[in-house]
Design goal:
This protein is mainly beta and 280 residues long. It is 9% helix and 59% strand. The strands form 2 sheets. An 11-stranded mixed β-barrel has the order 2-3-4-5-6-7-8-10-11-12-15.
Length: 280
């Protein structure tokens, strides 16, 4: 039975690898994200969190929020406020509301999420399922399902703590309208593979550099040169089909733990929340 399972999984991975090899990959210029978050813990083991993120595109031709000044360096800035409540030692749920200032289309995002904190030895194994409701300033609203898994572990460095983090997240978009059968869509719309390492400077200040490989999955149509061949057919400039756009993201998270009713020197922030608010 085990040999059959290994064989089936091996064939499945080979099939996936072959299918991905047929997909054209598009690489983008690196993005730089800077995050600032404050967590205020309550006596009931819940906490409020407030977050602000600034996003910069290293492509100098990509427009910023303003034509000049400091905001011209950023293509997106958002602010959010949320609350997370622990139900048991392993289960917790959260809600947040976010407003995004975007170069092309401001939006509001409302999220509800359920988290399970398990263990593999000394390593935290975190599973999370979130649902986003996205309301843009222009255009139709849509939903987004976001399952993710993360591994985190503490390592003591004298009086300090280093907490490495590895996570993977999938995005499935939902349009609140009947699908057009003529428009092809991919099963997964986006994925994020994230590596981070959080360092406890003091019991109430954590610094986290991170790297994210973000992949957008989509279809494109054939493009043409505008000329015809000898048979009168349009000459294809570039064949359409599946595309995977890869965005490398370099980030830095500054996290404050505000003294509340339920904090101590051992209080550790959820690094998996690096994924929670990040969206469009």
């Amino acid at each position: 039975m085990n040999k059959k399972l290994v064989l089936v999984l091996g064939l499945w991975f080979l099939n996936v690898a072959f299918a991905e090899a047929q997909v054209k990959k598009v690489k983008s210029d690196p993005l730089i994200w800077t995050d600032l978050q404050a967590d205020f813990y309550l006596k009931n083991k819940g906490f409020f969190f407030f977050r602000n993120q600034w996003r910069h595109n290293t492509d100098s031709d990509f427009p910023g929020l303003k034509e000049s000044g400091a905001l011209s360096k950023f293509y997106q800035v958002y602010v959010l406020a949320g609350y997370e409540q622990r139900f048991t030692e392993k289960w917790s749920g959260s809600l947040f509301a976010r407003y995004t200032f975007d170069t092309f289309n401001d939006n509001q995002i409302y999220q509800a999420a359920l988290r399970h904190n398990g263990k593999i030895g000394e390593t935290s194994f975190i599973k999370r399922l979130a649902y986003d409701y996205i309301r843009p300033e222009f255009g139709d609203s849509r939903g987004r399902i976001r399952p993710s898994v993360a591994l985190e572990r503490n390592f003591k460095l004298g009086n300090h703590t280093l907490r490495p983090h590895l996570s993977y997240e999938l995005f499935f978009y939902q349009d609140f309208k009947e699908e057009d059968p003529l428009i092809e869509t991919r099963t997964v719309d986006r994925s994020r593979l994230r590596i981070a390492a959080s360092y406890k400077v003091t019991p109430y200040l954590w610094l986290t550099p991170y790297f994210t490989k973000q992949t957008e999955y989509y279809y494109v149509l054939d493009t043409f040169t505008g000329e015809d061949d000898d048979q009168g057919n349009p000459i294809i400039k570039e064949k359409g089909g599946k595309r995977n756009r890869i965005d490398p993201i370099f980030g830095f998270d500054i996290r404050f733990i505000i003294r509340g009713k339920n904090t101590s020197d051992e209080t550790v922030p959820q690094l998996s929340s690096l994924n929670d608010a990040a969206g469009n």
